[in-house]
Design brief:
Length: 59
């Protein structure tokens, strides 16, 4: 599952949990969003490190 898909799925779960007063589903949705956000942040760090490496002529 892509990070964006996981994030959107988490938002939907959280919203449905709020609408149905299901705290467990709300928490699961929030967790999915946090997980997706952490993965995206890690990918940005990895991309930035690669850009720095490329800037110094590394392969």
């Amino acid at each position: 599952m892509s990070n964006k898909t996981e994030e959107l799925s988490g938002k939907a779960k959280e919203a449905f949990g709020k609408a149905t007063d299901n705290e467990s589903l709300q928490a699961e949705g929030a967790g999915d969003q946090a997980s997706a956000g952490a993965k995206q942040a890690g990918e940005h760090v990895k991309d930035a490190a690669q850009d720095v490496k490329d800037g110094f002529g590394g392969k």
